[in-house]
Each structure stands twice: as structure tokens, then as C-alpha cells.
Design goal:
Formiminotransferase-cyclodeaminase, Chain B, domain 1, 4-stranded antiparallel β-sheet, Four Helix Bundle (Hemerythrin (Met), subunit A), single chain, alpha+beta
Length: 558
């Protein structure tokens, strides 16, 4: 994918007829440079949240075509559902993902809003960062009165649309377009059918809290406004509703800033409120997508509450998060379909680490020159630090060592980070070799082509030096963990720390050979001298550290 990415998450007022939704998603997918990530339909809400990502220009085009198609295939005069709504395309936010500022995203949102208003005759309001007026930043404020209130609303000069005519479009309604930070839509399942009780929980936690009442009347502040008591979760919005499809009431929450209130904190606060009111949270439901970090942070949070090591794999952290919050109660939770980074991954970019062990060995042993020593060095380094991480995790869970669990957990987490980086370099080393081969295959008929070819060869060669040098650096860092585990780790696993040290030393020395052979073809003498000096230092440090760790190991097992 391109490094300039924005995400678009339009909400369409149709969640029951997937043939209608397919017509909308088909036009989105027809635009080159856009990737459809998720289609999340709700029957009770009669609403579908669609998520796609791409280059800004492509996303704007796809969003326009989707809004146009929705206006053709959805009739708002016949729509009903649990979720507040005012248009066929109810809301269409743009979110900067990579290489794009919020200011730029605002301009893209307003460009889209202008085109929708002028070409489709749909009244458009701009919200959040794209709002032209402060009182239009909040989506709920704009949507007050919903579709049914639009005829009167559009006659009010205060509610003149930002784009489009102030005329009621009975079929399409009105659309809200804006630019916002990443938002997570998350529903909490309750063991009740009472909307009133679900709302009570929502009011306990949402930022806006609840209006204070006394003797059945609202208490006013010094300005004559209703006095509010803030909820326990800032940067959240929440309401209660009944979902006939599941036969339960839910608290529906939008987390508008996950740095302020993370998902796992919101879950715990909802649980506390529900328990205090005699209710129970039985599970939860993610609407749309979630960043990987959110799931990893949640997994670590729940493991830490158990006083268990957080230094486990991404897959295990996600599993803990899903089970702890009951995210699979209503439907299966597939990380590959719900986590943004996984949806953007292409397994073709990492063919080696996605292989089975025997296939990797067969590929290495084949007549192909890659994967070679560089990739194998990175993999051996990953195995070495994995052994140290294993010892840390075993030590964290060792009976009688409970007071040390956090120390070993920190070591294990450090090891997991190094392991993941080294695994990525397994494929990266082979890519760097293939880049050199590709450069050598460039045309060289003219002087200009010869210069371009030579420049490409040198650029690829430099990268082929930098990758194994990074392998050396990371493998050397793993000795901190390995030495600590030999010294203070579970004594029953001290030999594993020793094997890890030998693997780390092999990785450093093996990657060093790749640095040297590639450096011999690079023409920048100063760069080569600096790199070779660094490689020599790394190699000697690895040998010294290997001896230190093995001395401890042999002393403990003699």
C-alpha cells in the first residue's frame, strides 16, 4: 500500500439486505488504490459500517461513488432501526492513517462534502475537525431529530447545510462528512433486556455523564444550564439500547481517543457499573476494526492483573484480550479480519517466516541462492532470543517466585520485541539480495541507463549491508536477556539460556560474514570502513558475551 493513507468509515442505513450493500461495496472496490477492509452489518440497527483505506484521492473518489450508490438503492422514507440516523449514507468520516496530516484530511473531507452537495443534491453537514462552526463538531448535535426531523430542520436558517441545498431529500436524507481521529465502536452485552438499566450504566461511564436531578427536576448550574456529573471514561460517548437480534440490552460506546480511555479500561468501568447495579457484562462486540496496539495493550493489561508474564506472542495477547472481554460471545472474532494491520498485511511480503519449518529448510537447501546465510543468521538470532524469553516466562510462573513475576515479565517482553524484529529481517535479507539481482538486470544500452543501473546496484548493495548489520545489532542486544536468565532465571532451564547464547553468537558472526561480502562490492570507502569496524566490534563483543553466559551455565550444571 502507498505510504499516504487515509481510512474512510461510512455508515449506511441498511443492515438487512446484503444485496443492497454489495452494490455499494462493489463501487468502492472498483476504484484503484482502495482496499475494502471490513463490512459490518447489524440487523437490529439496520445499519452497516464499511471500512476501506487507500490513497487520499482514491478514497475520496470511492466515498463519493458509495454515497451516490447509497442514494440510489436506499430509501430513507422506509427505513427503521435502533441506531440514530438521518441519511442513506448517515455519516462518512475520514481518518488519517499514514503520511497525511489532520489538516490535509480536513481539506479532503470538505472537498468530498462539496462534491456530494453539489452533484448529488444531498444536504451535507461537516463535523469534528472538518466543522465550519463549533456547534457542529459533535455528530449527535447535528443528528438530533434524525431523518424525521429533517424537513423542519432544513427550514431553520441555523441549520443551513454546509454544502448542498437546504431542501429535504426524502429518499437520501442528509449526510454528515468529517475528519476525525481513530474511533472504536464497541458494544457491551448485558444480562438484561432493560434499556433503562443499560442507559444507567452508559451514563455512569460516558464523558458527558448524567444530568443531576433532585425531586424529579433537573438541577441547574450558575448559568442556568443542567448540572452534570461526568462519567468515569473521558473521550467516550455511550447509550443503552435493546438488540432484538440477540435478545439483550447493550451499552453502545464510541471511544473517541483510545490514548485517553483504552478499550480495556472502558470494559472494566462498564463491568464495575453493571455490577453495582446488579447486572453483569456477559461479553462485548467490536463494530468495525481495531488497531493492533489496542488488542496487545488489552492482553497485557489482563495478564498483568493475573500477575502473569506479558512477554508472550502477539497471537497469545490477542487471545487473552478476546477471552477477557468476551469479544467472541455473539460471533467469532477473527483477528485477520478485525485488526487493521493484519488486513493490510500481504503474506507474499513475508514468504519465509510464513513457511513451515520443513519447507523453510527445503527452500534453503534448494538451488536458489536465497534464502542464504543472511536470512539463516536472522532466524538463528530469533531462535536464540526466543530461548531466553522462554526461560523468562518459565521463571515468571515458577512456584515460590511470585514476588518476582514482574521482573521476569519485563525481560520476556523485551525478548518478544527482539524476536519479532529478527523474524522480519529473515525475509528482509532475502529481499535485499533480490533487489541487487533486479538492479543487475536493468537495461544498460545508453549512458543514462548505465548510470541508472549502477546507482540502483549501489543502493541495493548498501541496503544488503545494512540488513545483516541490523541482525548483528539485535542479536547482540539479546545477550542482556540471556545473561540475566543464566544468572537469575529458573535453574532448571539454565542450559536453554546457554543454547540461546550460542545461537546469538552464531547470528552475530554469520550476519557479519554477509556484511563483509556485500561491503566488498560497495564503492563508498568511508561507509565501508565504518561498517566493517562496527561489524568487527560486534563480533568480538558476541564472542566475549557468549563465554560469559556459558561460564555461568557450566558452573550451574556441573
Amino acid at each position: 500500500m502507498n505510504t499516504r493513507l487515509i481510512e474512510c468509515v461510512p455508515n449506511f442505513s441498511e443492515g438487512r439486505d446484503m444485496n443492497v450493500m454489495k452494490q455499494i461495496t462493489d463501487v468502492i472496490e472498483s476504484v484503484e488504490g482502495v482496499k475494502l477492509l471490513d463490512v459490518d452489518a447489524g440487523k437490529a440497527t439496520n445499519r452497516t459500517v464499511v471500512t476501506f483505506v487507500g490513497t487520499p484521492e482514491a478514497v475520496i473518489e470511492a466515498a463519493f461513488l458509495a454515497i451516490k450508490k447509497a442514494a440510489e438503492v436506499i430509501d430513507m422514507s422506509k427505513h427503521s432501526g435502533e441506531h440514530p440516523r438521518m441519511g442513506a449514507t448517515d455519516v462518512c468520516p475520514l481518518i488519517p492513517i499514514a503520511g497525511v496530516t489532520m489538516e490535509e484530511t480536513v481539506e479532503f473531507a470538505r472537498k468530498l462534502a462539496k462534491r456530494v452537495g453539489e452533484e448529488l443534491d444531498i444536504p451535507v453537514y461537516c463535523y469534528e475537525y472538518a466543522a465550519f462552526q463549533p456547534d457542529r463538531k459533535n455528530l449527535a448535535t447535528i443528528r438530533a431529530g434524525e431523518y424525521e426531523g429533517l424537513p423542519a430542520k432544513l427550514k431553520n436558517p441555523t441549520w443551513k447545510p454546509d454544502f448542498g441545498k437546504a431542501e429535504f431529500n426524502a429518499k437520501a436524507g442528509a449526510t454528515v462528512i468529517g475528519a476525525r481521529d481513530f474511533l472504536i465502536a464497541y458494544n457491551f452485552n448485558l444480562n438484561t433486556t432493560s434499556v433503562r438499566r443499560a442507559n444507567s450504566v452508559a451514563f455512569d461511564v460516558r464523558e458527558a455523564g448524567r444530568v443531576v436531578e433532585k425531586d424529579g427536576k433537573k438541577v441547574l448550574d450558575e448559568n442556568g444550564e443542567p448540572l452534570r456529573v461526568a462519567g468515569t471514561c473521558p473521550a467516550t460517548k455511550a447509550i443503552g439500547w435493546y438488540i432484538e437480534e440477540y435478545g439483550i440490552a447493550q451499552v453502545s460506546m464510541n471511544l473517541t481517543n483510545i490514548n485517553v480511555t483504552p478499550l480495556h479500561i472502558a470494559f472494566d468501568e462498564i463491568c464495575k457499573s453493571a455490577t453495582n447495579r446488579g447486572l453483569r457484562v456477559t461479553g462485548s462486540e467490536l463494530v468495525g476494526l481495531v488497531p493492533l496496539k489496542v488488542m496487545l495493550d488489552a492482553g497485557k493489561y489482563f495478564l498483568a492483573k493475573q500477575k502473569r508474564s506479558v512477554g508472550v506472542s502477539e497471537a497469545e495477547l490477542i487471545k487473552i484480550a478476546v477471552k477477557s472481554m468476551g469479544m467472541d460471545e455473539l460471533k467469532p472474532f477473527d483477528p485477520k479480519k478485525k485488526i487493521i494491520e493484519y488486513l493490510l498485511q500481504d503474506e507474499k511480503d513475508s514468504p519465509l517466516i510464513n513457511m513451515k519449518l520443513n519447507a523453510f529448510a527445503d527452500e534453503t537447501a534448494s538451488e536458489s541462492p536465497a534464502p542464504g546465510g543472511g536470512s539463516i543468521s536472522a532466524y538463528v538470532g530469533a531462535l536464540g532470543v526466543s530461548l531466553g524469553t522462554m526461560v523468562a516466562n518459565l521463571s515468571s510462573h515458577k512456584k515460590g517466585w511470585d514476588e518476582q513475576w514482574e521482573t521476569f515479565s519485563d525481560w520476556a517482553a523485551q525478548g518478544q520485541g527482539l524476536k519479532d524484529q529478527l523474524l522480519r529481517l529473515v525475509d528482509e535479507d532475502t529481499k535485499s539480495f533480490n533487489a541487487i539481482m533486479s538492479a543487475f538486470g536493468m537495461p544498460k544500452a545508453t549512458d543514462a541507463e548505465k548510470q541508472q543501473r549502477q546507482a540502483a546496484i549501489q543502493a541495493a548493495t548498501k541496503y544488503a549491508i545494512e540488513v545483516p548489520l541490523k541482525v548483528m545489532e539485535l542479536s547482540l542486544k539479546s545477550f542482556d536477556l540471556l545473561k540475566a536468565m543464566a544468572d537469575i532465571g529458573n535453574p532448571n532451564s539454565v542450559s536453554d539460556a546457554g543454547v540461546g547464547a550460542m545461537c546469538a553468537a552464531t547470528a552475530v558472526r554469520g550476519a557479519g560474514l554477509n556484511v563483509r561480502i556485500n561491503a566488498s562490492a560497495y564503492k563508498d570507502a568511508d561507509f565501508v570502513a565504518k561498517v566493517l569496524a562496527q561489524a568487527t566490534t560486534y563480533e568480538q563483543q558476541a564472542l566475549d558475551l557468549e563465554k560469559e553466559v556459558l561460564a555461568v551455565v557450566y558452573d550451574k550444571i556441573k
